[in-house]
Every structure is written in C-alpha cells, then in structure tokens.
Specification:
Length: 275
C-alpha cells in the first residue's frame, strides 16, 4: 500500500483514534468486532464507486461527509466503528482509492491488536508467513484463489478446507478478507504484506531466510540474536527451506541481501572466472 502525504496524515489520525478506543478506557467494543466491521465497510466502498468518491473528495465539506456517513451506518455498526470512520472520512485523503486503502489498513490493525492483546501475535505472524509459502509452492492453488472470475463461494470453501480450525481466528479473518476482496493483490503478495504488518506491530524488522536445510529452534534463536546485534533493532525470522542452495543461507532484510549459500558462492566464482 502506497499512500501520499495527505493520506498518510489522515490514516495516522484515524489509527490513533482506533487505538484510543480499543486500548483505552473507551474500549467497550472489542478490536476483533471493530476490525470485521471495518472490513465490511471496505467491501461497501469497493462495490460503490459513487459512495467512494463522495467520502474521498477532499474538496467537499468534511461535515457533509460525516453526515452522509452517519446517515448510512448509524445503528448498523458499533459506535466505536462509526467513531473511527468519522475520523477517517472527515480527513483529507489524496484520492478515494487511498481512503479505501486506509480503512482496510485500520481493519487489519484492529485485528492485529486483538491478537496482541491475547498474546497470539507471534502465532498469527508465523501462520501468515507459512501460508504464504504453502500458496507460493502451489501455483494452481494460488491461481484458483486469485482468479477474479472464480466463484466466491468456491474460493471460500477451498480456503476453509485449508485453514478452518487450523489457524488463529485473527489469521483466518485476515486471510479470508484477502481472498474475498484482494483489491489487486495476489494471494502470495497479500500474505507477505500481512506477515510484515504483524511483524511491524511487534516493532520488529523481518529477515527472510532461505536455508538449504531445516534450521533448528536453537539455530533460529542464535541467528535472530546475531542479526539483532548487527542491525541494532529486533529482527524476526521468516525461514523457508530451499534445497537448490546446496548449503548455507540467503538472508534478505529490506533491500539488503546476505548470500552465504554454496550456490551463491559458486555463482560468484563463475562470475569472477568469466570476468
């Protein structure tokens, strides 16, 4: 999700209000319910271009946008959900699409806060990453889940068979929303984004690690500790096995790649010999 300056400011204000409502004394509405209702609004705005434009028109009267919102949703969503949405639509967004992006981000934040409260954010992050690897390793599965012409009920049935009762409720809600309303994202890219959001919620950077063999828990702990010392910030590991590396590791953090694999060293040697 790329937001311009005005939209970033609008999202920051709405997110602050959301956190005040779910984490402060006013948190009568649970973050899970709030997140689900915000996702419903994302669906509404995605399906109604005229409504999306009305709420995302920065040149219109903010009070008028609030009145329109209340006329549509008052009594149909929780007061906390309406409060967050009022903050969002009263702000100036760079475009109507970025407003919808912002509401989607707020929904995801609410669900991740729910997982954080329950002490399950680690599990959600790990499940999102592992699901991403499963789908990436099965192109037919990704094709079916991503196909815009595919049956929504069929996609949901396939997804339920894959994750229902096997993952955290927050993971299930996030992935279901991604599949039902991808908004231009492939399932693999969406799952990678969601895992990154979970890591960010924990104030950690993510190291994507490819290893020739499965790493033990102790090896992963030592690697995470070493990277944390090197980068002077907490580092979370997302590890996948890639036998094509022959041996060693490839570590990617942001745009930086550390290639300590046998395959990488052989490729470098071939380049040196060719040069």
């Amino acid at each position: 999700m790329t937001l311009h300056a005005a939209s970033r400011e609008a999202l920051a204000a709405a997110e602050l209000r959301l956190l005040e409502l779910v984490e402060g004394a006013a948190g009568a509405t649970g973050p899970s319910a709030l997140g689900q209702e915000l996702f419903s609004v994302v669906g509404l705005l995605s399906a109604q271009p005229q409504l999306r434009r009305a709420f995302g028109d920065a040149s219109s009267d903010p009070a008028g946008r609030e009145r329109l919102l209340r006329s549509l949703l008052a009594g149909k969503v929780a007061d906390a959900t309406l409060d967050v949405l009022v903050t969002a639509v009263s702000a100036k967004w760079s475009s109507p699409r970025e407003l919808v992006d912002g509401v989607e981000s707020l929904a995801r934040t609410a669900l991740l806060v729910h997982a954080e409260r329950d002490g399950r954010l680690d599990a959600v992050e790990d499940e999102l990453f592992r699901l991403g690897r499963i789908v990436a390793g099965n192109p037919e599965l990704e094709r079916v889940l991503t196909d815009p012409a595919g049956s929504p009920d069929g996609k949901l049935a396939l997804l339920n068979g894959l994750i229902r009762g096997k993952v955290e409720k927050v993971t299930e809600a996030l992935v279901t929303q991604l599949v039902q309303l991808p908004r231009g994202l492939s399932v693999v890219n969406g799952l990678t984004l969601l895992a990154g959001l979970a890591a960010k919620r924990r104030e950690r950077s993510v190291a994507h690690v490819r290893s020739a063999v499965e790493l033990t828990a102790d090896q992963q702990d030592r690697l995470a500790a070493s990277l944390t010392r090197i980068y002077s910030r907490p580092i979370a590991l997302h590890v996948e096995v890639d036998a094509s590396l022959v041996g060693g590791l490839v570590i990617k953090i942001g745009d930086e790649v550390i290639d300590g694999s046998v395959a990488g060293r052989l490729a470098a040697l071939r380049r040196d010999l060719a040069g």
